[in-house]
Amino acid sequence: MQTKILGLCIAVLMFSCKEDSKDNAIAKREIKQYTIEQFMDNEAVGGGSFSSDNSKLLLSSNRSGIYNVYTIPTKGGEMTAITQSDSTSISARSYFPNDNRMLLSADGNGDEIDHLFVRELDGTIKDITPDKGAKASFYGWAEDDEHLYFGSNKRNPRYFDVYKMSIDDYTSEMIYQDDTGLSFSGMSNDENYFALTKSLNTNDSDLSLYNVKTKEMTKINKNQSGNSSQDFSKDNSTFYYTTDDGAEFSYLMSYNLETKVATKVLEKSWDISGAGFTSQGTYMVVYVNDDGKNAIDVLDAKTMTPIELPDFGDKSITSVRFNDDESWMRMYVGGSNSPSDLYTYNLETKEQHKLTNVLNEAIDAEDLVTAKVVRYESFDGTVIPAIYYLPKQASAENKVPAMVWVHGGPGGQTRQGFSSLIQYMVNHGYAILAVNNRGSSGYGKTFYQMDDLNHGEKDLQDCVEGKNWLASQTEIDGEKIGIIGGSYGGYMTMAALTYTPEEFDVGVNLFGVTNWMRTLKSIPPYWESFRESLYLELGDPFSADSVRLKRISPLFHTDKVTKPLIVLQGAKDPRVLQVESDEIVAGVRKNGVPVEYVLFEDEGHGFVKKENQIESYSRILKFLDEHLKKENQPVDGETESTEIEAEKAN
């Protein structure tokens, strides 16, 4: 895709000499190593809703150790804490349209049962969706600025209905009832059209429009394809959606609601992953999944041509949001070696303000590593994309150990964003190859579907070939390569240790599936809309597929594990139950294999509390230092690390 222009030989030689000198200087420069506490002192911020007078933004930050809600002046200044939770993370959703009330959301300490809350003008916080056991999701503000829309499964745990709530007295009425598993994915401003999707499989879905006045349901897509609702025009005349019909990647379409004519609007060489209008309809924001990172265009809605955005050099704008009158835009800007900072930009005056400095001041950004996209051939010739992090201290003379990193999903994608855990491991001398094995999203629908009913087999071989690619690199110690992953990546870690037991030297399993039959039978009821699609991809546990599901479930093959293992799990995880990790640990320990188990009573599917992140990440590094970086030696099952874990559990 890139074109290289070669100049005169002498110019090339001079350039090469300069580059060699530069590289040598970097190699000789001492790279400071940082503690996990220093890495976790980086701040993570999210959200950024403008107040009605444009003076402040509402955002979430984990500076207190978990996520709480803060405000910050639009032109910069000190953050003001709005919530002070010390247990459950709280997220900022939006300022109210005409006053300084705030819409917040929180679940029950990781159980994923989200409720919506209002922070009143007097500072009190009220749960406005208090139905026990029901999830609530904010869908947006009504055109009259006097109501909000939300989805809830309070009527039926399997389905989400759409409600309209008065922001005066918080009373609500149902405006769409779902009894068929159609997912709400948008609504016209006049409330006459509802965009609804029906999942067919993990890639394809039917997209329909429901006309409230005529009661007519119209399917938009003509062929089976991947379709996603994006937005309605401000005048309620046009519906916008993305589709991959007849193509590998999703492109943007418009659909005239009167004539019912569909027209292609925009196509890129990668998936258009999102598109939507600003509040007044002047601009359309388009997100593109460009080889594992966000690329953003802000288009003039009349001409569909990009407007000029600020240039941040080697950093990327990863997210934008406009205020109601479209005079201000907030942006997140970062990269693989830099956590994203929040900026504001005035479109009229062109003034720009950096509101946060989320990288810990104690960390020199020059010590962090920039991700590099690489590709390698798998066993059958399939080209596998991956994100590569090579420690700056690595060289042919100073070979380093490495880890194959496997993302969650199935169907996820490792992207070129900042990861404190990855940078921590790389800073301490571990190369990371984040593999986007077949079945990963972002690389075309053919690639995405290549692992259907084939998990733990060909996708696992892609990871093994990733290990082989690492071993071929001159800076890597090919005798010291492990595998790490969370959720589905945790499954792949256990699959690697059970089905290819001699390929990887250690395994790090973060809340990974180990018994597919149990996991697929115990999915939450609110996943009903895509349960069948999940079964089509992985297998139906209530059918003959159960034979294969048992065969690819590591729990039933723990006797094959011979390499050291660490397992990390949240007790409140509703997706991968704690029993999955309990049983895999017990099974592998029977082999006399070194096993560590780190269990957090107050975490769900992923660890969000800083103290738990510090504990888990430091335990991972200590485990790798003991079992991978040092010469691998046979050790008894009753290791020091096992005793540490047992003491923690007690």
Secondary structure class reads alpha+beta
Main beta sheet: strand number and arrangement?
Answer: 8 strands, mixed
> Any idea what the radius of gyration is?
25 Å
How far apart lie the N and C ends? 56 Å
Work out the number of β strands. Answer: 36
Give the uncertain stretches in residue-range form: 1-27, 632-650
Strand content: 25-35%
Q: Give the CA-based shape.
A: globular
Number of helices: 12
Keywords:
alpha+beta, 12 helices, 19% helix, globular, eight-stranded mixed beta sheet, four-stranded antiparallel beta sheet, 34% strand, disordered C terminus, disordered N terminus, 36 strands, 650 residues
Give a description of the structure.
It is a single chain. This protein is of the alpha+beta class. Helix content is 19%, strand content 34%. The strands form eight sheets. Strands 29-30-32-31-33-34-35-36 form an eight-stranded mixed sheet, with helices on both faces. A hairpin with a 6-residue loop joins β3 (68-73) and β4.
Summary, kept brief:
The chain is α+β, with helices and mostly antiparallel strands.
Chain-wise SSE layout:
Blueprint: H1 9-28, H2 36-40, E1 45-50, E2 56-61, E3 68-73, E4 80-81, E5 90-95, E6 102-106, E7 115-119, E8 125-127, E9 136-141, E10 147-156, E11 159-166, E12 172-176, E13 183-187, E14 193-199, E15 205-211, E16 216-219, E17 227-232, E18 238-243, E19 251-256, E20 262-266, E21 271-277, E22 283-290, E23 293-300, E24 305-306, E25 316-322, E26 328-335, E27 338-346, E28 352-354, E29 372-377, E30 383-389, E31 400-406, H3 420-427, E32 431-435, H4 445-448, H5 458-471, E33 476-486, H6 488-499, E34 507-510, H7 516-521, H8 531-538, H9 545-551, E35 565-570, H10 578-589, E36 595-600, H11 610-629, H12 640-649
Parallel strand pairs: 31-32, 31-33, 33-34, 34-35, 35-36
Antiparallel strand pairs: 1-2, 2-3, 3-4, 5-6, 6-7, 7-8, 9-10, 10-11, 11-12, 13-14, 14-15, 15-16, 17-18, 18-19, 19-20, 21-22, 22-23, 23-24, 25-26, 26-27, 27-28, 29-30, 30-32
